Amino acid sequence: MQIILMGAPGAGKGTQAAFLVERYKIPQISTGDMFRAAVKNGTALGLEAKTYMASGKLVPDTVTIGIVRERLAEGDCKAGFILDGFPRTVEQADALNKILDEQGKKISCVLNISVPSEYLIERAVGRRVCKSCGATYHVKFNPPKVANTCDNCGSDLYQRTDDTASTMQNRLAAYESSTRPLIDYYKKMGVYSEIDGRQTIAKVTEDLINVLTSVKD
Ligand code: ADP
Ligand code: AMP
């Protein structure tokens, strides 16, 4: 299955991707995670992406499309994948169609986790991520059992440097101008479904699985 998880920053894509990976045994491909790893490792890609990410702007399409093209060519994507945070522009969506065409695949389903903007800043600012395994928590909505400690692996949690109220303003603006148009784009392709992301994490998972169960691959 080729799944695209769409949604504004903080909507819950990464949280839900973790459940879907477990259930469908296909990899999560998060461009945000790939860029953060590159920044951490000080690679050329990281150096290029860093300033855009720090200010909440989108990394240029040519760079982003290049890393996704390479990633989708890897063996673990053969049986499918969950794209999280890609595509974010019409140009990226066009490029993805082309990559999938070349691979003889198609998009199975675009799942948009829809959350109004007034929820998103609180979700992002309260987000905490495990330094080792990347598990995502929220100080209020999904706290770890022991403060600042990952339930899965016991490592410390950290706060992303771009999870501030001011950077979120830019990230939300980028979502509105560049990513929201993809809703109509995928509606026209006949692959779009919307899930109410204001609900609890468990209920959102249930709704996503209900949609996926009815998808013909
Ligand atoms: P995204 O990957 O879309 O940026 P995340 O999955 O990282 O979003 O979620 C952002 C924050 O909101 C995290 O702290 C997460 O624990 C929390 N969160 C995710 N889904 C929900 C939900 N349904 N209700 C409340 N908080 C949520
Ligand atoms: P995320 O982890 O999805 O919240 O992404 C963090 C940051 O990485 C974004 O604010 C962008 O700067 C960058 N980024 C992630 N995915 C993309 C993408 N598909 N296109 C452009 N920039 C991206």
Task: Walk me through what this model shows.
This protein has 217 residues and is of the alpha/beta class. It folds into two domains: 2-116 and 165-213, 3-Layer(aba) Sandwich (Rossmann fold), CATH 3.40.50; 127-162, no CATH class. It contains nine helices and eight strands. The strands form two sheets. The chain has a five-stranded parallel sheet with strand order 2-3-1-4-8, with helices on both faces. Strands 6-5-7 form a three-stranded antiparallel sheet. Helix 4 (61-72) packs parallel to helix 5 and helix 6 (117-125) crosses helix 7. The radius of gyration is 16 Å and the shape is globular. Bound molecules: adenosine-5'-diphosphate (ADP) and adenosine monophosphate.
The SSE order reads: EHEHHHEHEHEEEHHEH
CATH superfamily of the largest domain: P-loop containing nucleotide triphosphate hydrolases
Bound molecules: adenosine-5'-diphosphate, adenosine monophosphate
Rg, please?
A: 16 Å
Strand content: 5-15%
Distance between the termini: 6 Å
Given the C-alpha coordinates, what overall shape results?
globular
Approximate helicity band: 40-55%
What's the architecture of the largest domain, going by CATH? 3-Layer(aba) Sandwich
Q: Give the C-level CATH assignment of the largest domain.
A: Alpha Beta
* Uncertain regions spanning at least 5 consecutive residues: none
Count of distinct strands: 8
Category by helix and strand content: alpha/beta
Order of strands across the biggest sheet? 2-3-1-4-8
Structural domain count = 2
Helical stretch count?
Answer: 9
**Major sheet details:** 5 strands, parallel
Determine the CATH topology of the largest domain.
Rossmann fold
